[in-house]
Structure to design on (287 residues):
């Protein structure tokens, strides 16, 4: 295995086959970020979401997707222009991954792509375990989802961050208060349908534990864009707390825990989850 890949993989826990697959995904995520940086992507776009929080702020759970937002609305933005850079970056480290745009039947502000590669091939490359590789179907693929919001809500703030592997590179990402606004919007407005996304709740606790301030203006813009409030409404921190406590009162916490357990190392961190717990910690929310 390429020594740089080996260095990158050492950052992750890879005991079980599930963790081994996630370790490959996490390496591919960072190689993709490096490729996008070298392609000039972050002149017009910013990184945000759970994977951004994991890589740059130490969130202790696995996050599957790469989420980006343009800095200014541009529905004509062509994500295809950047996909060849991802292919070349992966190949330069001996990886056989290909980025492909996801074709959507319904027009959307969010453009999506997948970075795909054969699981068996890459398990052999990363772990040199033939017995393990034989247990994997020949058609199975490792996929990293990549999404870009071309109609971003206003008032996000940005910061520049640096990474050293696979080579030194820089990215633009949402600052912590803006990341927190995006997470609170997800908690309030995500259509969980029949499966509560406990990962949103886990991340919410992470932000609160870090005493993260909230970018209230950005949250208001997100809520207005979703139709949760009117554009002319004056959102206050007390109103946000009330909205959150109402949401927390409606959650099936047993279901939420089942969603997040596969992504974390210590399930006992969820033992205190309840509506009362979440409402109490929400009292610490500040701007």
């Amino acid at each position: 295995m390429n020594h740089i890949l080996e260095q990158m993989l050492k950052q992750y826990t890879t005991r079980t086959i599930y963790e081994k697959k996630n370790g490959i995904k996490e390496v591919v995520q960072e190689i993709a970020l490096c490729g996008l940086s070298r392609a000039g992507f972050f002149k017009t776009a910013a990184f945000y979401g759970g994977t951004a929080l994991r890589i740059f702020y130490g969130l202790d759970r696995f996050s599957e997707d790469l989420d980006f937002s343009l800095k200014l609305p541009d529905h004509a933005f062509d994500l295809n222009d950047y996909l060849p850079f991802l292919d070349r970056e992966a190949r330069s480290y001996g990886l056989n991954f290909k980025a492909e745009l996801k074709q959507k039947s319904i027009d959307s502000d969010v453009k999506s792509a997948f970075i795909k590669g054969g699981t068996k091939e890459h398990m052999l490359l990363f772990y040199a375990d033939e017995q393990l590789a034989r247990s994997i179907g020949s058609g199975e693929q490792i996929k990293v989802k990549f999404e870009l919001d071309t109609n971003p809500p206003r008032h996000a703030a940005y910061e520049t961050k640096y990474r050293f592997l696979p080579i030194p590179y820089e990215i633009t990402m949402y600052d912590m208060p803006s990341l927190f606004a995006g997470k609170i919007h997800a908690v309030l407005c995500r259509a969980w349908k029949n499966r509560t996304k406990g990962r949103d709740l886990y991340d919410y606790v992470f932000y609160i534990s870090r005493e993260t301030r909230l970018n209230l203006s950005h949250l208001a813009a997100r809520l207005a864009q979703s139709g949760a409030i009117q554009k002319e409404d004056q959102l206050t921190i007390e109103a946000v707390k009330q909205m959150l406590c109402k949401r927390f009162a409606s959650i099936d916490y047993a279901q939420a825990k089942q969603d997040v357990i596969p992504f974390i190392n210590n399930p006992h961190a969820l033992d205190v989850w309840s509506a009362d717990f979440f409402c109490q910690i929400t009292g610490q929310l500040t701007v």
